[in-house]
Specification:
Largest sheet: 6 strands, mixed
CATH superfamily of the largest domain: Bordetella uptake gene, domain 1
Distance between the termini: 98 Å
Strand content: 15-25%
Helix content: 40-55%
Shape: globular
Number of strands: 11
Number of helices: 11
CATH class of the largest domain: Alpha Beta
Length: 336
Amino acid sequence: MEAPGKWLFAQMFRMCKAVALAIALLTGLGSCIAAAEPAYPTRPIRLIIPYPAGGPRDIQARLLGSRLTEIWGRSVIVDNRAGASGIVGTDLAAKAAPDGYTILMIGGGHAVNATLQPKLPYDSVRDFAPIARTSAAPGLMVVGLSLPVKSVAELTEYLRSRPGKVFYSSAGTGTPSHLAMELFKIMTRTEAVHVPYKGAAPALTDVMSGQVQISIPTIPGALPLTRAGKLRALAVTGAKRSTAAPDVPTVIEAGLPGYTSTNWYGFVAPAKTPTTIIDVLSEQITRMVSSPEMREKMQDIGLDPDPAGPAQFGEFIRTEIVKWSKVVKAVGLKPE
């Protein structure tokens, strides 16, 4: 008969071997899972901008996309898909595979389209997974150099003396540049004819050429042109002066109390994109926007860094849709 001490030792030895084997199996399984699911991203990411190249959204997207490319070692390819006030590119993103390799940069027009366009090919909330809000940008009221006005007060008088004979451009019907001018018209009781374009860049080109006289794009798109002496800046549309254009007064300072109109930007992905991927994107984007280096670059082009994560950004989008739906209905806007 085996001695009790030897028997107990043998049992403990067998148990230790079993535990060691189990640990080895679990470790191996974990390695297999890790090998089967490589870290995101593993290939280039398409970043859809639903407006032409050269606008404020495009400038910001290229700044952030370039930085992400450096960090990940994977290309972030900016894909400009303009048309129908941003609807063409937005619909393309909504129908893309929810795998994290197609993302979309939206702005204030996304919230407006939810009410202005009664038959959107996508749902502005349900078809997208919020990633991160990045920034806010006030508008910059600009006029062509041939227009004989140098202030908001002079512009108001000029419009009142020529009802329906002055033209203003926008990035498209229902875009922030359109609504900003409509709000100005309501508050000043003036008239001007709306000429919608397929983005901020072509809208400003025709202001410079004199085909239209006024526009209110966001600061990033217009500031380089005012600095180059190709457009005249009259006022910024935010509640306070912009650090990018400190010498330009606000519309409020120029004599129109209560007037503000500010755009915003952020990233979304197709609905059902895995939460793990959304979290990776959000963490990296908000970290970038919060860095001193990127904040300085964004402020240089007229953007106010305003990072927010998925939950906060999602709630913000829903709130914006409700707010702008009231404005659209009050003005009686219809899609063109």
